[in-house]
Amino acid sequence: MSIQMQEIQSRIRKAAQEIPPLPGAVMQVLDLVDREDATAEQLQKIISSDPSLSAKVLQLANSAYYGLSRQVSTIQQAVIILGFQTVKNLVLGLAAFQAFKGEKHATPEMLSLWERSFVCAGVALEIAKVKKLGLANAETAFMGGLLHDLGLLFLAQYFPIPNNQIAHAAREDSTRHDTEQQMLGIDHAAIGALIADHWQLPSALVQMIANHHAPFLPDNEYRALIACVSLASSWVLAANPELNFNFAPPEPPEDAIQWAGIDEAVQQEILMGVAERAQSMRHVMAA
């Protein structure tokens, strides 16, 4: 590794550890939802203490992604209709996106990342359902899919020059994460895991983010969840080249493919259903 590469890798690791913490309201939501005695009223009170967050949660809840038969006008209604875990996922996803967007208008690259993250999240959830992992694990897989590309948002915001250099080096025979390793000595999966750990997010999320481009599934308790996110990421990028910024789609681990055992017809059905809904998320975040 060259001295220049070592220097930028050191700068990246340092910057990832210095990102401001998530807002207090977000951390309160994460803590509350994990409690058995949590109520919709309590959750509404916390989220409503941040008017901007509350407004965005309602916009997302009413988007075509969730396909509700009627509009929800309060956070409490959203919790009752969508469920605690879904609202928690929206809050955490919004907070993560806002952490890198700041007060600026979202760039086309960030909006594409947001859209593909929601597609990946929905596909990961559907894979978990097909594999009968249970509702709680399916929701966790969704969250892993939504946050798996935190590292890309970080690079776009904090390291725009190296990020642009990586983008200009895009080739259809090289994946984004391989190009990052060659140019930076670290990839966005590792960077995202550093950020998730810094934010003290649950271990399952850190593991899904860290391993979503790993060549083999790790032999740990999160193996099935990692498989869901890894497969979802690969499927989405292979099916939507425009969301992959001219890089080759990543290959999922062979053991993940074998574990899932999902045929191509089911795969395409999942992708088409989720992708159509996810387009609405881009419009919400562009506002």
Q: Looking at this structure, what is the CATH superfamily? A: Hypothetical protein af1432
Give the count of helical stretches: 16
Cα-based radius of gyration, to the nearest Å: 18 Å
**CATH architecture name:** Orthogonal Bundle
Q: List low-confidence stretches.
A: none
Tell me what portion of residues adopts beta-strand conformation.
Answer: under 5%
* Strand count: 0
Query: Largest sheet, described in full?
Result: none
CATH topology: Hypothetical protein af1432
> What order do the helices and strands follow?
HHHHHHHHHHHHHHHH
Describe the global form: globular
State the helical fraction.
over 70%
CATH C-level label: Mainly Alpha
End-to-end C-alpha gap: 42 Å
Number of domains: 1
Keywords:
mainly alpha, 16 helices, 0% strand
How is this structure best described in words?
The structure is a single chain. The chain has 287 residues and is mainly alpha-helical. The protein has one domain: Hypothetical protein af1432. The chain has 16 helices and no strands. α14 crosses α15. The protein is globular and about 55 Å long. The model has no long low-confidence stretch (mean pLDDT 90).
Write a brief structural summary.
The chain is mainly α and 287 residues long. It has helices spanning 3-17, 24-33, 40-48, 51-61, 75-82, 84-101, 108-130, 135-147, 150-158, 160-168, 176-184, 188-198, 203-211, 223-239, 254-260, 264-286.
